[in-house]
């Protein structure tokens, strides 16, 4: 029934019907993640990396009230130019944006929803949202975690942003039965760095193992997704102490200014970029490329099993 609100791009539709691998991509990174034209260049480069690794990219967004699985270069450029004027769309925002014919850049949660409606099983992103620091009083927990508990999509990311409470984020995922898989690592990567001090549930070392595990999870009828934590490549990893100092400073400032809810992450990321002299943005781009490569390779393996 929901499909009447969904437009699947011809290339994506053709690939899905033929059982070929497809990788979903979010659009918040385009509108809210970095400045124009760097955001558009990055988005198009990510799509190229996915193609180069044997899969079809499907960048996801809401445009003119339509759920879109697969965007044209013109639509990506439009989101990049319009920037933060595009609504940041989580699950709660979808009915309003669709009903009013508005645009929305999709977060991890909404990208998972639309990917699942389209039949796309693998999704590459930067980092997931999670339990914010101080959530025991603010109750600020990202809808991404709830979506991972319910929606059968594999999310390949560089761990959770260390602006979050990583320990509580892992506890929340465990409570909701979401497997947290470290790709070639036993430690949860923390977005800009390869280290967090927290362990993952399991380590898997090949795209074949990732694909088989996700296939079996679905085949058993277990609900929900799977989180694959893929560490940022060593050469782009930031110094643990430098990034944590910048994060602590940014968190303190956000508290002082009373920033909360969906404004928190964009504020913190912009502040961290300033404090690190732009190094964090360069790292951000490289980890997204790295996740796109792994997601494409895994989608190729998954298509063989399906």
Please tell me what the overall shape is. globular
Helix content: 40-55%
Structural class: alpha/beta
Biggest sheet character: 11 strands, mixed
Instruction: Give the distance, in angstroms, between the N- and C-terminal Cα atoms.
Output: 24 Å
User: In sequence order, what are the helices and strands, one letter per element?
Assistant: EHEHHEEHEHEHEHHEHEEHEHHH
**Beta-strand percent range:** 5-15%
Unreliable residue stretches? none
Compute the CA-based radius of gyration.
18 Å
Structure overview:
By secondary structure, this protein is of the alpha/beta class. The chain contains 13 helices and 11 strands. Strands 1, 2, 3, 4, 5, 6, 7, 8, 9, 10 and 11 form an 11-stranded mixed beta sheet that branches. A hairpin with a 2-residue loop joins strand 3 (56-63) and strand 4 (66-69). Helix 6 packs parallel to helix 8, helix 10 (207-219) crosses helix 13 (279-305) and helix 11 (240-257) packs across helix 12 (264-275). The longest helix is centred in the last third of the chain and has 27 residues, at 279-305. It starts with 5 loop residues before the first strand and ends with a helix.
């Amino acid at each position: 029934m929901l499909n009447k609100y969904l437009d699947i791009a011809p290339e994506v539709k053709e690939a899905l019907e033929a059982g070929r691998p497809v990788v979903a991509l979010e659009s918040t990174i385009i509108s809210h993640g970095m400045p124009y034209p760097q955001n558009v260049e990055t988005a198009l480069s990510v799509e190229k990396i996915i193609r180069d690794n044997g899969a079809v990219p499907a960048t996801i967004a809401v445009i003119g009230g339509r759920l879109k699985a697969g965007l044209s270069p013109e639509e990506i450029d439009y989101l990049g130019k319009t920037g933060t004027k595009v609504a940041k769309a989580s699950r709660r925002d979808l009915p309003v944006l669709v009903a009013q014919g508005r645009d929305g850049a999709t977060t991890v949660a909404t990208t998972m929803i639309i990917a699942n409606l389209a039949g796309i099983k693998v999704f590459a992103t930067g980092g997931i949202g999670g339990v914010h620091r101080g959530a025991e009083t603010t109750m600020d927990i990202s809808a991404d975690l709830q979506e991972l508990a319910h929606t059968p999509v594999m999310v390949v990311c560089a761990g959770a942003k260390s602006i979050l409470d990583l320990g509580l984020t892992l506890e929340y995922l465990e409570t909701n039965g979401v497997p947290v898989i470290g790709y070639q690592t036993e430690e949860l990567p923390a977005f800009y760095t390869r280290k967090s001090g927290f362990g993952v549930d399991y380590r898997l070392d090949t795209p074949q193992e990732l694909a088989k595990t996700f296939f079996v999870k679905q085949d058993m009828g277990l609900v929900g997704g799977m989180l694959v934590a893929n560490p940022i490549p060593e050469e782009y990893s930031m110094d643990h102490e430098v990034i944590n100092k910048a994060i602590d400073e940014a968190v303190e400032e956000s508290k002082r200014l009373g920033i909360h809810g969906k404004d928190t992450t964009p504020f913190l990321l912009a502040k961290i970029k300033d404090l690190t002299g732009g190094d964090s943005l360069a790292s951000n781009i490289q980890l997204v490329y790295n996740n796109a490569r792994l997601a494409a390779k895994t989608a190729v393996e998954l298509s063989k099993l399906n």
